[in-house]
Amino acid sequence: MQLIDGKAISAQIKLEIAQEVENIVAAGGKRPHLAAVLVGHDGGSESYVAHKVKACEQCGFKSSLIRFDEDITEEELIAQIERLNNDDDVDGFIVQLPLPRHIKEQRVIESIDYRKDVDGFHPINVGRLSIGLPCFVSATPAGIMELLARYNIDTRGKHCVVLGRSNIVGKPIASLMMQKTNPGNATVTVCHSATPNIKEICRTADIIIAAMGSPGFVTADMVKQGAVVIDVGTTRVPNAESKNGWKLTGDVCFDEVAPLCSYITPVPGGVGPMTIVSLMRNTLLAGKKVIFDY
Amino acid sequence: MQLIDGKAISAQIKLEIAQEVENIVAAGGKRPHLAAVLVGHDGGSESYVAHKVKACEQCGFKSSLIRFDEDITEEELIAQIERLNNDDDVDGFIVQLPLPRHIKEQRVIESIDYRKDVDGFHPINVGRLSIGLPCFVSATPAGIMELLARYNIDTRGKHCVVLGRSNIVGKPIASLMMQKTNPGNATVTVCHSATPNIKEICRTADIIIAAMGSPGFVTADMVKQGAVVIDVGTTRVPNAESKNGWKLTGDVCFDEVAPLCSYITPVPGGVGPMTIVSLMRNTLLAGKKVIFDY
To answer: For B28-133, which CATH class?
Structure first.
């Protein structure tokens, strides 16, 4: 069993990005600039955005944090997004979700210029991903593909079972894994809450990508000897022993499943660290203006 | 075994659409208007477009056929598309594919206003379909969903195996079948040219949607007793006995597979007739301006 070390890989990628940024700047190019829009003061969102700003520093990017009060109107927020769309200094930007209830998230997402949509949530990016065209791939699925690539995991013709059909993980990772690419080119099955025989299907999987948000869902009796298990779960489970009172818990019963696997990602330190790094990579691509015709 | 009669259903839907159009017009509304752009004189394309124009008549739509010579430049074609985008009388339009080699199809598709893209090929429509938002669903997958709905076929929690990962059938039908909708809500497996054990996977399927374009690919030994089989294949196979020298042939060995099925679509007369009808339905929706915020 080999542990997939997302923490080490993500640190390595940040170094690679920082090096490329320095080369760009040394050659007289522009330092990539990521802006983050944060509405209100949700604790989780504050912490995510702070991590992203810190990662920007590590990569040598310019970053801006743009804060709005909880009571900003949808119209005003969209007007601010228009401003970012038209600001040539901003290469890419994100709007941290969730937004307050009075704002329609989908409308806000669709108001972002897809060429600056480094979160990859705009329907144009989602559609281009499905079609197999260059696009901003959303961070978590992009991070998973990067881990598979860096560990040279053979996916061609393998049976990949995706647990969960969310728009930000399950569906896009299924799309990526079925494309005629490497990694990719897998036979893909998507299971979800309406699937009656998930255990049985998982037992046929060469690769399991668990993204249900259901702590400890994948048990040893669901995993074939030699399978690759990618755990996307990151649920905060109350834990008296931990400092902050909770423990980040994956969808996989790691201790019992790991001995069966050829490769497995731990939680934390597997897919999680790759997510921010994928956002950084998208920002680099946005800065280089290489994905779309601009 | 029940035969799914796409020909009868499509005739029925055309009547329903025609009735709705007459109601709209009687109430002072605008008659939906579909325009078709045809470049050059490819025999297949001429015939497809002629069928679409005829279906428009049957539905009570206004239709326009806009022809360009084979040597039109990409820029000029895109300028003409811009004209259609801005023509308030045109509710929806299609650009008949394939286009001549010197024209980049994807660039042309992306130049269509997605709100008039009744073929559903624009990345915004593809992305919205994946996300589960209202959109123009491309014709063949929409037709399959309509057949499943009209025959009240239970798809929830069923194992649906899709053969083929094309952008116009395999991928979108997989997306639709996994959505939390009815029909839909199925466990979906996508198989393709890199899948080593297609036979074995098919034998576990409650629903097989065959869209490989490989005549007679699905044989009796691949089909479970009671399965639903949807045959999307329409390959012209040389046939001396037929008037035109070929016979439209599906991906399924109908004679040997049909006795095993609970439901099966024939070729011709199954999915085929539904395809044009789905385009008509999209045109009606375009005319009613009900899918997007306009």
So the answer is: alpha beta
Are B222 and B202 in contact, with CB atoms under 8 Å apart? yes
Residue intervals of chain A classified under CATH 3.40.50.10860 are: 28-119
From residue A189, give the alpha-carbon distance in Å to each of A54, A220, A250: 37, 19, 20
- Contact at 8 Å (CB) between B157 and A195? yes
Q: Is A98:A294 a contact under the CB 8 Å cutoff?
A: no
Q: Kindly state whether B128 is in contact with chain A, defined as any CB-CB distance less than 8 angstroms.
A: yes
- Cβ of A178 and B189 within 8 Å? no
Q: List, for residues B195-217, the tens digit of each pLDDT value.
A: 999 999 999 999 999 999 999 99
> Is the omega angle on the peptide bond into residue A238 within 30 degrees of 0, that is, cis?
no
Q: Which of A123, A156, A172 sits opposite B124 (nearest CB)?
A: A123
A123: nearest CA in chain B? B127
CA A272: distance to chain centroid?
8
Position B160 pLDDT exceeds 90: yes
CA atoms within 13 A on the CB side of B23: 8
CA distance A38 to A36: 6
Residue range(s) occupied by CATH 3.40.50.10860 in chain B: 28-133
CATH for the B139-274 domain, from 3.30.450.20, 3.30.1370.10, 3.40.50.720, 1.10.3720.10: 3.40.50.720
Rounded distance, CA B123 to CA B30, Å? 28
Give one DSSP letter per residue of B70-113, joined into a string: TT--HHHHHHHHHHHHH-TT--EEEEPSPPPTTS-HHHHHHHS-
- Structure confidence at residue B248 as a pLDDT band (50, 70, 90): very high
Helix (H) or strand (E) holding A80, with range, is helix A74-86
The DSSP code for A218 is: B
Q: What's the Cα-to-Cα distance from A21 to each of A60, A93, A247, A278, B1, rounded to whole Å? A: 6, 18, 35, 15, 64
B201-208 contacts, C-beta under 8 A, 24 or more apart: B201/A187, B201/B161, B202/B161, B202/B163, B204/B159, B204/B161, B205/B159, B205/B160, B205/B161, B206/B158, B206/B159, B206/B160, B207/B153, B207/B155, B207/B158, B207/B159, B207/B160, B207/B161, B207/B177, B208/B160, B208/B161, B208/B163, B208/B252
Reading the block at residue A121, the tokens are: 């949530």
A91 in catalytic set:
no
Question: How many other C-beta atoms are found inside a 10 Å radius of the C-beta of residue B16?
Answer: 14
CATH 3.40.50.720 domain locations along chain A: 139-274
ipTM over 0.90: yes
Token pair for residue B248? Answer: 């439209």
A28-119 has CATH 3.40.50.150 classification: no
- Cβ distance A217 to A202 under 8 Å? no
pLDDT for B294 equals: 66
Residues 149-178 of chain B with CB under 8 A from chain A are 156-157, 165, 167, 171-172, 174-175, 178
> Rounded CA gap, B14 and B276, in Å?
10
Q: Both tokens of residue A62?
A: 């310019």
Nearest-Cα distance to chain A for B168, in Å, is 9
